[in-house]
Amino acid sequence: MNYRMKLMGMAATAALLAGVTVASAADIEVIHWWTSKGEAAAVAQFAKALDNDGQGDKWVDSAIALGETARATVMQRVLGGDPPEAAQFNPGRQYEELIANGQLLDLTDVATEGKWDEVIRPKQIQSACFLDGHWWCVPVNIHSNYWAWYSKPAFEQAGVAEPKSMEEFVAAAPKLKEAGIIPFAIGGDGNGWQIQLLFQDMVTEGLGIEARNKMYEDKDAAIAGGPEMVQVFKDLRALKSFTDEGYANRNWNDTTNLVITNKAGLQVMGDWARGEFAAAGMTGVKDFGCIIGLNEDKPLVSTDGDIFVFFKQSDPEVEAAQKRLAKLLISPEVQVAFNNAKGSMPVRGDVDMSTADPCMQKALAAVEDPAKIVVATNRYITENTNQAINELIANYFADDSVTAEDAAAKFAEIIELSD
Amino acid sequence: MTLALRRAFPLPSIVGTIPMILVSIGVFVVGIGFSVLWSFTSSKLFPNYDFVGLLQYRRLWATDRWLVAVNNIWIFGFLSIGCNLVFGYLLAVFMDQRIRQEDAFRSIFLYPFAMSLIVTGLVWQWALDPNLGLQSAMRHLGWESFSFAPLVDPQLAIYGLVVAGIWQGSGVTMAILLAGLRGIDQEIWKAAKVDGIPDWRAYLFIGLPMMRGAVATAFVLQCVSVVRVYDLVVAMTGGGPGYSTTMPAVYVIQLITVRQNVGQGMAAATMMLLPILIVIAIGGILLWRRGRKAKAA
Amino acid sequence: MSAHDTAIDTRAGARAGIEPEGRKPRRISPGRIGIYAFLIMAAVFFLVPLYVMIVTSLKTMPEIRLGLLFNLPKEPTIQPWIDAMVNACTGLDCHGLSPGFWNSVKITVPSVIVSIICASLNGYALTYWPYKGANLLFALLVFGAFVPYQVVIYPLIIGLSWAGLFATLPGIIIIHTIFGMPLLTLLYRNFYASLPVELFKAARVDGAGFWRIFFMIMMPMSVPITIVAVILQVTGIWNDFLFGVVFAGRENWPMTVQLNNIVNSTTGVREYNINMAATILTAAVPLIVYFVSGRWFVRGIAAGAVKG
Description:
B: mainly alpha; 15 helices; C: 2 domains
């Protein structure tokens, strides 16, 4: 009759049912932003593993597209006292405050048992989850932002050799332009994150890993405003002259599409771009080329990717199920199945990835060498600083009247004031 | 005494508006109160009560992007409200001419309002893209010098947004004004006809003043959608090129959600509400004085 | 006289026999041609994006990649529409838009009804039965309309979770009623204020009270503005994503959650044909409401009531 009574009745029935079934089983609601077809196939590997863990656990899938939307939803549910059991994040500082507020489940016992500190490689990716002597999250994959993708037919049409580094590309770019091809494809959507991705790649190349890490870690304004950085800004402007005027609002998919259709020569984008090439039926041997670390002679891999956090719950049985899921996410079988479907690298080296495509094989080789690892920029800076840099770079790229010196000075200011 | 009291506070009227009382006080006053309070704190991901004085406001006004946003809202507001009202009234008047297929026309003018801006914004972005849209289509047709690609130019992008804003919003203005036109007594139109007043003058000088309520509603609705404009910008330009098309609401929402900087987001929101508060307060005082004069007379 | 005008007159009962008014339709004059020319040109402007969406939704992805926006599909396919409805992945589930449809109905219908009743009562009370402070409350309400939602979302989450209504169906209905109230109240208040006050006075003289006048006189007279209110609310609530995803609770997630998952992606592949089909499909419900409710949108109601 009245709604509340009905609700109470339902709750009572549910409680009764729960009491009768397997005592330790639990539903684990997981919020993530993997909603496209390929991503759904990947996340299905996680769900399958949990559903078949023999304890009667169930993966309750709460997919919400766009990382920022999914994260905002998670935060609002935490505030409403109804957090999901688990949620996806990027390895950065987005969940710092959750740890400080004691809202996350401590996974240290699972990690010790699974020897996470030994099996997870590269070491740099552990720092995203291992803070103050405790494990707060599970890294599930590595995506590298340090890649350039180019159209082989475009370079053939222009009559220049395929590039092996950005330097060679810049040298070849005028030829591409003459042939009626947009030499450099980029997009300026979403506050210019694509431009910043390119910029960060160039910063690492310009400064070297050591100085770059020092700049972010120590908020070193001297490096951030130094001559090397001014040069990076100059190179960025040079690249702009090789793009088209339609770049302004373009999303990364449409940008990759320019390379796929041979309208553009080269794009700098993370390794998820392989998904668009694959969807267009391209294999990566004869149709398109990939340059690792933007320079084949100096391969680099960044530790971007995804991690999962688990929210504290009052029910100890749910907590046990959360820990079972944490253990599964990093188990060798699930790592192989998930990462093959996702097109990313596993976070442990002791698994068989021989079916991966040629581009991924390059990365898998590089990831074993600690000297070739670049810690994700977001590990150093907060989202607030990240967006402030986005703004600076996007504006610099759009507005030719801002000089490289001014931009570098502004960049130094952001770095110095970052928290 | 009790009679006077009953006249000042008619009971059924108060009972009938309990939801309004709860929402105005319980949601908006309290909600906005907390927002203002949080604007003086260092809140990041979650609201906290670590007070930092005016720091967030100082940082806000030192941010180029906020200054651009404040500037943009005036340009966008004047253009889009003006165009929407004029175009909406024109449509309403033409729709009022006992035309055939009125239902079909009304649905055509309203459909943009029904669609998710995530995708229609992308379609507009494509249509205004120099390589894909109107410009390239015209050039393919042989008009080589045709140039129309506002979204890619930081100086012009805001006008591209206005065009899409008119496309999205003028249908609703039309519907409200049409409802207003149809609320006017028939006898008035007949009288105008008998007096030999031309149609356009009747609509402009007789119809319009008689439907002040509808015009005011349409105007406020437009103002609200301008102040809160978010989806349109995010879908079409993402605030770019650079940050040339950022608007205050976009700034606020990005700070609160994406940038995890609740304190400064709330400071920006408070700044947004200040001019509106002043306008409404002035309006309220004028209304109150007019009411007193009416009572005195 | 067209068929639907007569239909309305019968429905309006007491007002049957009164001719819907306006200038007599002259047959074919330059003026009429001008009117249609203007309306058709406006319609073309409005329809161009829809045209692009429809042709894109009928193309295959390789054809879309060619970037010829305005061209008709070379090999038309309806597969994207089927995918959007029942196959597209929205996370682990690959059932397209369909799972959320009934949830959206469950949220929209009660929210629209409750919010319109509240708002029309507000408008009526503010116009004819103002009490001390009523206009101040109204000003606060209108002020609230200007606040970006995200700014007041935190206190609302805390409040609803305190009341035990966070992430429930009643919770989301309350939220939609709250955020619909400012504009709808304004809409009704301004509409009632424009009605001839004699109507109200005559009813008072006849001894009718607050509720009687509202139900017997004001409600029937506010049909045109109620249509506008329905248009605003159905659109707003049906298309709402922000509140639905947070306040409705996972089991009540509206269709827009699926739409967002189909259309948006951070690092995934985008299938534009499916995106376009999904958007048009989601908009179908408000569009049908516009078309159907528009039939009551005729002139002469106020005048008829005065005479009747």
